[in-house]
Description:
Blueprint: E1 9-17, H1 22-25, E2 31-41, E3 44-53, H2 65-72, E4 78-84, E5 91-98, H3 101-110, E6 113-124, E7 127-134, E8 142-148, E9 161-164, H4 173-178, H5 185-195
Antiparallel strand pairs: 1-5, 1-8, 1-9, 2-3, 2-6, 3-4, 4-5, 6-7, 7-8
Amino acid sequence: MSDTGYGDFEFERKFVCAGLPEIVAAEADPVLIVQAYLLADEGYAVRVRVQGPGAGLTAADLGRTDEVLDELAPRVEFAALTAKGPHVGGTRYEAERELDPGVAVELVRRGRHHVVKLRHAVWLGDDGWVIDEFAGANAPLVVAECERGGPVVDLVVPDFCVSEVTADARFGNEHLAVEPYSTWRSTFERELAVTGPVFSQEFGQNRLPSQG
């Protein structure tokens, strides 16, 4: 539970990137994440995640989910079961419970819908960011996310963020597990070509790094 006074709620903004930003491309210690969705329906989701060191790996190195799990199983550093509610204005209910790594691996293995990704972390100005590099059917999707203990307002948006997708349910991991990015990438790219980059105006002033 959060100690910020908001309880089991997370606050985040999410952006699609053109590729893996240079600032994290050479990172030595990304985190390898494999997760299965036991439920994903209208924004509600129940997820099991296992994660461990991803040093030396790229998304292109990650093959079939079962093969990745076999490699990761003896190196799991964290495992959890998470229940999530729908996104509402950059806010989402999220309750998490840590699991035994061995049990979690087998739950993930038995799940039908998976997401495999490398997570990179970087600190920019006053905010920590995670950049997720998706593998498998979700490649070459790269998504950057800023999360805070309260509403993410007046954000300095890094120049590697192409367009905001905070409110676009297609970019939720539970949706990517069921309908991978490769199946609708061309549709999104056509939309982006028509609308151009979109950044929400609901969260105060969006600033460029030079204005930070």
